[in-house]
Each structure stands twice: as C-alpha cells, then as structure tokens.
Design the sequence.
C-alpha cells in the first residue's frame, strides 16, 4: 500500500519543517540530518531512517533527532520502534509526547479504515502511554470489539461502556457484546442486566441468543444464591431459576434447573412446590435412568414420605 505521508499530522510535519535549519548546521551531525530530511522528502524512508539513526549516534539523546526517528518509524508503521523513540524524545522535550500521540492516532485511524485492528490497537496503546487519557471517539467501539474478539474482555469492557456513553442510541449488538464480555469474566449478575436490555431492544424473533445467555446466567446466579443461604437469598435464587425455566434455555440445563428449584422450595418450606419441581426433572433429562433423575426421585420420596433428615435436607426434608 502506498504510504499516505502527505496526510501525516500537520503539527508533526510543521515541527520537522521548523527543525530543517538544524540539519544545515556545519559538521557531520548537521549534514547527516540534512541528508535524512532530503531522503524523507523523497519518500525514501529507509534511507532517511538510516541517516537519522546515524545522527542519533552522533548527537546522543537529542530530542529533535529522536523525534525524527520516531516519526519515520510511525510513517513506516513500525509501532514498537516509534513508541521507543517518541518516549525517549519526550523525556527530553515534553512536546514530543503530544506530537508522537498525534502521529500514532493518525496511524490508528488509517488502520481502522483498512480493517487492520491489530495495528489500530497497537498504535492506540502507544498513544495512551505517551498521553494517558487521550480518547478517539470513532475508535472506541472498534477497539472494544478488537479486544472482545481476542478474548481480552477486561480491556474491552471499559471501551464498550464508553462507546455506550458516546452514542445517543444504544446499538443492540453493542449491548449484547457487553453482556457476553461480563459473562466471559464470570460476572453473570452484570451480564444479565445487558442481556435483558438487549432483549428489550430487538424484535421477538431476534431474542433467541439473549434467551440462551439469560437462562444460563440466571441458573448460575441461582446456584450461588442458594449456596449463600437465608430466606432473602433463596427468594432471589427462586426468581432466577424461574427465569431460566421461562427462557427454556439452555435446554441441557433444564433438568438441573427443575432440581435446583425443588431444593430452593424445600429450603423455603414450600413442600408441595418442591414435590412438583422434582417430579418435572425426568421430563427434561435425556435418560430416565440418569443420576439426576434418580436424585430427584430420592428427594421426592424423602419429602413425600419423610426420612428423618429434616435438619439436613431443609424444611421439607
């Protein structure tokens, strides 16, 4: 691809142009910079880079020479090297932090247009290092989706949340992805907020994917709440397990959901409701002789006929 050096950030190019006189000073260092500037103007970037790097060896850690190297690396799309030289330049002269950040934001925007999310993300990571807190609204959602697709959910979530705040209307796909990211890091209570929100944003025929996630997360939350114990937690657990059954998803968990409901109702003292829940397990298990069906029948018998284990099995045990 032809490099769009002509569209580099004007501030960076203006500074480099203003430094051109420095390259005309007498001595090896000045002539090296002059040759580098001339090569850069011809778009001979590798030649310019060689001259600038030679100037670094001659001049030492001079900010303007280091900045030239960083700018050339950025134009070559070599992000790691650009980051190194811009950081070294900024240590000597803080304006290079701003110039480097502008350069890398430009590169990130180009990468987004070219559908190169790895280059976009790499460039923006350097920007945040040079100038923490810098945001580029049009890149927020693409960056969030890049981190989501690469499994970096913890990095994706703040960007998704910012994307929601930057958009006047919530995009259903963004709301669903935020829920999925929360679910992936094990935060089902937060995930459910977004899955339910997504369900309210789309037509009924498009709710199936959210239904699966709502059913799955509701089941996980119900189990955690039952383990916590206490009537308040049990009532909340019952609400969540009922939501799983209402969704009818995931289908492979429905037998377990009925069993879980039976245990919750038993602990709440609703013996008739508990018996009904345990009796439903066999209809949702692939095998009538499965271990879960046998356990459900055992619990049914304990409640229906009594087993002397009330203190161990709950109020209906």
Sequence:
């Amino acid at each position: 691809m032809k490099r769009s050096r002509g569209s580099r950030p004007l501030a960076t190019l203006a500074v480099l142009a203003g430094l051109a006189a420095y390259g005309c000073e007498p001595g090896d260092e000045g002539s090296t910079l002059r040759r580098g500037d001339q090569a850069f103007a011809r778009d001979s970037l590798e030649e310019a880079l060689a001259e600038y790097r030679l100037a670094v060896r001659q001049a030492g850690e001079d900010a303007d020479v280091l900045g030239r190297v960083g700018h050339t690396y950025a134009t070559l799309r070599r992000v790691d090297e650009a980051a190194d030289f811009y950081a070294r330049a900024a240590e000597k002269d803080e304006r290079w932090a701003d110039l480097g950040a502008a350069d890398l934001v430009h590169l990130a925007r180009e990468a987004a247009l070219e559908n190169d999310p790895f280059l976009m993300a790499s460039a923006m990571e350097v920007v945040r290092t040079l100038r923490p807190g810098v945001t580029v609204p049009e890149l927020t959602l693409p960056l969030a989706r890049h981190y989501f697709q690469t499994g970096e959910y913890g990095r994706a979530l703040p960007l998704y949340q910012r994307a929601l705040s930057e958009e006047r209307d919530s995009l259903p796909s963004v709301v669903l992805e935020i829920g999925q990211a929360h679910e992936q890091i094990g935060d089902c209570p937060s995930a459910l907020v977004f899955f339910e929100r997504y369900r309210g944003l789309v037509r009924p025929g498009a709710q199936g994917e959210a239904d699966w996630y709502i059913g799955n997360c509701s089941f996980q939350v119900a189990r955690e709440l039952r383990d916590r114990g206490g009537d308040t937690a049990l009532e909340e657990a019952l609400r969540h397990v009922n939501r799983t059954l209402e969704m009818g998803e995931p289908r492979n968990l429905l037998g377990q959901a009925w069993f879980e409901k039976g245990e919750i109702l038993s602990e709440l003292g609703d013996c008739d409701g508990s018996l009904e829940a345990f009796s439903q397990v066999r209809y949702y298990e692939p095998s009538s002789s499965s271990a879960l069906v046998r356990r459900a029948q055992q619990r049914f018998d304990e409640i229906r006929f009594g087993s002397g284990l009330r203190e161990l099995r709950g109020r209906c045990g």
